[in-house]
Amino acid sequence: MSERNGWLACVEADPNHSHRYVERFRSMAAEGADLGGEARFVDAMAPRGSRVLDAGCGPGRVGALIAAAGHEVVGVDVDPVLIAAAEHDHPGPRWLVGDLAELDLPGQGVPDGFDVVVCAGNVMAFLAADTRREVLRRLRGHLRAAGRIVVGFGAGRGYGFDEFVDDVHACGLAPDLMLSTWDLRPFTADADFLVAVLRPV
């Protein structure tokens, strides 16, 4: 790869970066903050007992809530510190260290064929720019025929929403739904966040 994953660059610059991230969300949860918007969204679109891939799962916040709603969850993240936190805080789902640009779950003994892939938490914006299309292709390759990919990330992070949509089409996907929040507000040209539901074509 010619470019650097933005998350790994942060970790390289500050070895405590991942630990602070974990503790930030642990503190927010302890204070009663509502951290379930993404999980509620996915749960609403998935039949009971669906297989869900949490791509870029971090410390397991989203995937754990999806699993608690009755779905089978596999989470993958490039950062072993975050995966260790997910395993500690949220036993039950399968949490794996892995690079989304090289995602091959059958090669790790996990069948593909997911009903939903969720990629929340600005994961797409942290990816090295030259891996974005490869990640979208690999996520698509892990879907069932009628599956959907749900991506959420903010503006001003070096990945324009128009550029993202171009990448989506280039990877055999198409937007089914474009929103500006996880609570279903419509997407507008001046939105500062995008939630996109994608289908394979």
TrEMBL record:
The protein's matches in InterPro entries, at most eight in alphabetical order, are given as: Methyltransf_25, SAM-dependent_MTases_sf
Domain Methyltransferase spans what residues? Answer: 52-147
Keywords assigned by UniProt, alphabetized: Transferase
Q: Which GO terms describe its molecular function?
A: transferase activity
- Please report the name of this protein according to its UniProt entry: Methyltransferase domain-containing protein
